[in-house]
Design goal:
Ferrdict_sens_TM, elongated, 3-stranded mixed β-sheet, Jelly Rolls, 13-stranded mixed β-sheet, FecR
Length: about 260
C-alpha cells in the first residue's frame, strides 16, 4: 500500500544499516535512549553562553546555524551552539543523532560529542552519539571528514579520514574506533524522508520505527496474529501518522509519550 502524509514534517533518525559488533559479546544497533542524559555542559567552553536545540518526539527538527549550515536533529537529541559561532569558530556540541550539511568556509566546522569529534570544511555527514549509550557512529555522505576520539585513549588516539561510502564505528566502553563501509544510498533515502516497510511482522516493524524515528518502542499483548505488512511507504510522515496507518492494518492501539511509543495488541 502507499500512504502519503498531508503535511511535510520531519522525522528523526534514519535506518542506514543494522550495525552489529560482536566484540566481547557486545551488540549495538539502533537507538533507544528514552530520555538521554544531557552532559553537554561538561564539553562547553567556560564563560561562553550556548543556545540549546532539542529534537521533538517522532519528528525531525531542522536547525539553521548562523553560517547557513543546516542540522537535522533526531528525536531526543540535543545540539548546543555557542554564542561566538561563526566568529572564527564553527564548533557545536551534540548529544544524540543528527545530520549536518555544512556550508563551505575557510574555518573548520567541528562537532564534538562525549565519544567522537568530527572536523570538516564543508561537507555532509551524520553523527550518532548519545551520552547514554556506549556506541557511536559517523556516516559520510560526500566530501571528506576527519574523525577522532573526543577523549584521551590509552591505546589509540589517531584520527581517521573518511570519504563517501565510509563510516566510523565506535564504542567507548571497549575503547574502539574503526573505519568501515556502508551504502550511501541508505542515507540518501533517509534524507528523502521516504520510509519503506516491506514484509515485516510487528517485531521487525518496531525495530524499523526505533531506527527511523529515534524512539523506544514497547509492544504489549499478543502480536502473533497480526498480519505482515508486505509493502508500505510513507512520505514526509510523522510517527503519529505511521502508527495510525499501521494500527489500522495490524489492529493495534498506540500511545506516544516522552520519546516512547507503546503498541498494544
Amino acid at each position: 500500500m502507499l500512504f502519503k502524509s498531508d503535511t511535510i514534517s520531519c522525522t528523526p533518525s534514519w535506518k542506514p544499516m543494522l550495525v552489529v559488533l560482536l566484540t566481547g559479546g557486545i551488540a549495538f544497533s539502533s537507538c533507544k535512549p528514552a530520555e538521554p542524559a544531557h552532559n553537554n555542559a561538561t564539553l562547553q567552553t567556560p564563560g561562553i553562553k550556548y543556545t540549546t536545540h532539542k529534537g521533538v518526539t517522532g519528528q525531525r527538527t531542522v536547525v539553521t546555524l548562523p553560517d547557513s549550515s543546516q542540522v537535522i536533529l533526531n528525536a531526543a537529541s540535543v545540539l548546543d551552539v555557542p554564542e561566538n559561532y561563526g566568529q572564527g569558530n564553527r564548533s557545536v556540541i551534540l548529544d544524540g543523532d543528527a545530520f549536518f550539511n555544512v556550508t563551505p568556509s575557510s574555518d573548520t566546522f567541528t562537532v564534538t560529542s562525549d565519544k567522537l569529534r568530527a572536523t570538516v570544511l564543508g561537507t555532509a555527514f551524520k553523527m550518532r552519539s548519545f551520552a547514554s549509550q556506549h556506541g557511536a557512529t559517523v556516516y559520510l555522505l560526500h566530501g571528506k571528514i576527519r574523525v577522532s576520539k573526543s577523549y584521551h585513549s590509552p591505546t589509540d588516539n589517531q584520527p581517521e579520514v573518511l570519504e563517501r561510502g565510509q563510516m566510523i564505528l565506535a564504542n567507548n566502553e571497549i575503547d574502539l574506533m574503526e573505519k568501515e563501509t556502508y551504502h550511501p544510498e541508505e542515507l540518501e533515502t533517509w534524507l528523502s524522508d521516504t520510509l519503506t516497510i516491506s514484509n515485516a511482522n510487528p517485531m521487525a516493524i518496531s525495530r524499523v520505527l526505533e531506527d527511523w524515528f529515534g524512539v523506544e518502542v514497547e509492544m504489549k499483548g499478543d502480536a502473533s496474529k497480526a498480519p505482515v505488512i508486505t509493502d508500505a511507504r510513507f512520505f514526509h510522515a510523522t510517527l503519529e501518522e505511521v502508527l495510525r496507518n499501521l494500527g489500522e492494518q495490524q489492529h493495534f492501539k498506540y500511545k506516544i509519550s516522552n520519546n516512547k511509543a507503546t503498541i498494544t495488541f
